Amino acid sequence: MPEPEGVIHKLYMERQLPPKVAEVARMQGEDPDRTSLMIEELRDMIYEKGECIPHRIDDDYLIKFLRARFWNVHHAYNLMVRYYAFRESNPEFYENVNPMALRSLGDDDIISISPYRDQEGRRVICFKFGKWRPAKIPIVDLFRATMLLLEVGSLEPQSQVLGGIGIMDLEGLTLNHAWNLTPAVAQKMLALLATSMPLRTSQIHIVNQGWVFDTAFQIFKPLLTDKMRQRLFFHGTDRASLHKYIDPEALPERYGGTKPEYPYTYWLEHLSRDERVVDELQQLGYVSDPLLED
């Protein structure tokens, strides 16, 4: 599908927060008079405990862990430990991964991210798992793409404060998909979306679910904490129910919204031209060499 004119998937990486977002940050515990002290406290904790070796400890990098845990230094430190443990356990999700090699997830319309934000200023990411063909795209690529989305999202100060929203569209989900959802896969999904990344997933909205989902969800239920359950919302095909949480102005037409679809591919292509993003991803182990044509 052609890209709409004038639509740019731009990251906003400026340090200064918009006034409304700055107010939310203040309510979350971000105090300009204490920011430096709390950053230094987190940095000292990293040195003293030695449970992880971050690839960076500059202020901008540490702030995103503090924001992800509402400026609780101990919780931010524990998040960092989990983040690096997750990376160490799953190097195949990022090590020598070329983001452009994941464009098939956009070509097949499995993942999309809107260039627009919802009424609260949050990014909206949509996963259409029913369109995923396991025989064509290995499940590791779904993890790679999701981790990449979260890594890039965590570069935006506004997203660090507000978090993001996920829409899980389960139309077309089959038993073939469900068979790929092992307990190990479920644990990794929850680690990415809830416990081990320096970016909060504020809400997850399940739409178009059927009996196959009910079966697969039994794998996830024992792993969910009360906080995770509070972030899950089930809508089926009830668009009015979804609109109670996400304004139609931030949704594509398929969900009763006003916007066209924006595949993952557009997002990758725009970000691949942003030198700051490319540099950040290279520090994390990704590669940006041009893909060879078949």
Automatic annotation (TrEMBL):
<protein>
    <recommendedName>
        <fullName>CRAL-TRIO domain-containing protein</fullName>
    </recommendedName>
</protein>
<dbReference type="InterPro" id="IPR036273">
    <property type="entry name" value="CRAL/TRIO_N_dom_sf"/>
</dbReference>
<dbReference type="GO" id="GO:1902936">
    <property type="term" value="F:phosphatidylinositol bisphosphate binding"/>
</dbReference>
<feature type="domain" description="CRAL-TRIO">
    <location>
        <begin position="98"/>
        <end position="263"/>
    </location>
</feature>
<dbReference type="GO" id="GO:0016020">
    <property type="term" value="C:membrane"/>
</dbReference>
<dbReference type="InterPro" id="IPR011074">
    <property type="entry name" value="CRAL/TRIO_N_dom"/>
</dbReference>
<dbReference type="Pfam" id="PF00650">
    <property type="entry name" value="CRAL_TRIO"/>
</dbReference>
<dbReference type="InterPro" id="IPR036865">
    <property type="entry name" value="CRAL-TRIO_dom_sf"/>
</dbReference>
<dbReference type="InterPro" id="IPR001251">
    <property type="entry name" value="CRAL-TRIO_dom"/>
</dbReference>
